[in-house]
């Protein structure tokens, strides 16, 4: 799922390319992507885009009196068209969820690969009407040390779970929580209460800030590949850790996995992987 650095890159790109332009048409390619009915999506036809912003991992296209809140889900992304395709959109065919046509002739799609369709678009008069926005915790790059310390001290969960909980700290997902914990040399299974919160917050800012800086001036089509190149442990199971040379390990869950370095993060010990444990019985 796109996280804070990638969504900030999309926001920067869209601000430069769509603010001041007008929506001429919105085509729905996947009905399930629409989570609101009032006002209708057609209400944005003819409206000027006044801004683009981010809350957590959500991208928001702003109009006068309306917000289009876009949440990408795990396989979601934004596809930019210098010249938007003019052919009819076939409902339920392919990854296309929503296509926005602009008066300039350009446009962009909200797409989602795979068969699971969890991306969402909500057109609202107040972005707080979207529960994920209303319940979002402090942004990962703006949360202060006192807030961060209190968040960790008040949790009984593992540190990786806390970093990914959007109601506690917004903007961090599976990939960058792996990267943050690797850089901080903390086990993803460590109790949040026992972590040095101020030191970890500095690492959060460092990792997310560097990632954002590396992506911020790229067009959408190049952001995903650039993100992947910058990851040191996430998605690199079986490879050598670039810091200590240990083999990067993985813990798998029902619908996702985390990666970590035993040498850097767990004193050389492998974390319990329930899926693998069952296979080895």
TrEMBL record:
GO biological process: base-excision repair
The organism of origin for this protein: Brevibacterium sandarakinum
A molecular function GO annotation: lyase activity
Parts of the chain that traverse the membrane: none
Family: Belongs to the FPG family.
Signal peptide: none
Keyword hit for Metal-binding: yes
Alphabetized UniProt keyword annotations: DNA damage, DNA repair, DNA-binding, Glycosidase, Hydrolase, Lyase, Metal-binding, Multifunctional enzyme, Zinc, Zinc-finger
Name of the featured protein: Formamidopyrimidine-DNA glycosylase
Cofactors, names only: Zn(2+)
Sequence ranges assigned to domain Formamidopyrimidine-DNA glycosylase catalytic in this UniProt record: 2-149
Domain FPG-type: 232-266
């Amino acid at each position: 799922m796109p996280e804070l650095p990638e969504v900030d890159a999309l926001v920067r790109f869209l601000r430069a390319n769509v603010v001041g332009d007008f929506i001429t048409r919105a085509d729905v390619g996947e009905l399930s992507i629409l989570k609101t009915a009032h006002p209708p999506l057609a209400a944005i036809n003819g409206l000027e885009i006044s801004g683009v912003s981010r809350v957590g991992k959500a991208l928001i296209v702003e109009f006068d009196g309306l917000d289009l809140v876009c949440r990408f889900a795990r396989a979601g992304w934004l596809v930019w068209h210098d010249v938007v395709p003019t052919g009819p959109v076939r409902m339920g065919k392919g990854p296309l969820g929503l296509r926005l046509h602009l008066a300039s002739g350009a446009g962009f799609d909200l797409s989602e690969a795979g068969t699971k369709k969890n991306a969402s678009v909500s057109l609202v008069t107040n972005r707080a009407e979207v529960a994920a926005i209303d319940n979002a915790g402090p942004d990962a790059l703006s949360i202060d040390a006192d807030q961060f310390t209190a968040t960790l001290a008040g949790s009984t969960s593992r540190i990786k779970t806390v970093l990914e909980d959007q109601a506690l700290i917004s903007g961090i997902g599976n990939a960058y929580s792996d990267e943050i914990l690797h850089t901080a040399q903390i086990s993803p299974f460590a109790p949040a209460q026992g972590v040095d919160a101020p030191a970890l917050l500095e690492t959060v800012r460092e990792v997310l800030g560097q990632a954002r800086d590396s992506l911020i001036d790229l067009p959408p089509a190049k952001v995903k590949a650039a993100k992947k190149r910058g990851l040191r442990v996430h998605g690199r199971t079986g490879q050598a850790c670039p810091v200590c040379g240990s083999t990067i390990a993985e813990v798998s869950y029902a619908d996702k996995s985390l990666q970590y370095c035993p040498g850097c993060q767990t004193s050389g010990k492998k974390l319990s992987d329930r899926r693998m444990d069952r296979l080895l019985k």
